[in-house]
Amino acid sequence: MNTVPDLVTLHVWQVPRTALPRVLTRMALDPRRLRALPGVRFAKLLGTGTGTGFGPGDADPTRWAALTVWDSPAAAAGFDASPVGRAWARLARAAVRVDLRPVTSRGEWSGRRPFGDPAGGRVAGPVLALTRARLRLRRAATFWRAVPPVAAALHAAPGLLARFGVGEAPLGWQGTVSVWRDQADLVAFAYRRPEHRAAITRTPTEGWYAEELFARFEVRDVVGDRTVLGWVADGDTIAEDGRV
């Protein structure tokens, strides 16, 4: 389905380490349940990491996420009362929801184009960038060696509000989420920082990815505890209560 969805949500939960056995049970049971909720077009439950290395040591067992593509905002409004939403709320000691509108999307995820074919255009205010890739195992070591300079540059990038890694499995299915003060800051990092530009140049020649997706979103709302996102800067476009 190439229709651009009205709403994409990113739920992120912070859980205590003692809840890890229950979290792993949820990660086994809930992907299918999440996809079966009314109005869900596409959904992924994700582990997270610091985004500094993408190796096993980067995983954060205290933070988990769900990325969901909805038919409508009305359908999304039922998530909190659903069995999946209630189960994660019971586990979490803090949580945040980011409401997103797709702006651009290139590539596939699990053989699908979940965000359709957005027309692009300018965004006034914060933007979220999502990168996701399935690594070719024989190229994984080369990829991991290339990550630290890019991650270090990202951490120091002007306009970065938050960033963390995401993954569907401990190894091989990797991604990043980053939130930026505005579109200009994101573009400046993506195309003007030499570390990231070098990684872009190497991607087609190195053949790191068996599947890849790059998407940008307008951040329409941030509801909850934004520190769960790993906020690294204060943006005057985001109010103290977490709302745009």
What does this entry look like structurally?
By secondary structure, the protein is α+β, with helices and mostly antiparallel strands. The protein has a single domain (7-229), classed as Alpha-Beta Plaits. The chain has six helices and eight strands, in the order βαββααββαββααβ. The chain has helices at 20-35, 73-76, 83-91, 140-155, 183-192, 194-206; strands at residues 7-14, 40-49, 59-70, 94-107, 127-135, 160-167, 173-180, 209-224. Strands 1-3-2-6-7-5-8-4 form an eight-stranded antiparallel beta barrel, surrounded by four helices. Helix 1 packs antiparallel against helix 3. The longest helix is centred in the N-terminal third of the chain and has 16 residues, at 20-35. The two termini are 29 Å apart. The model is unreliable at 193-198 and 235-244 (pLDDT under 50).
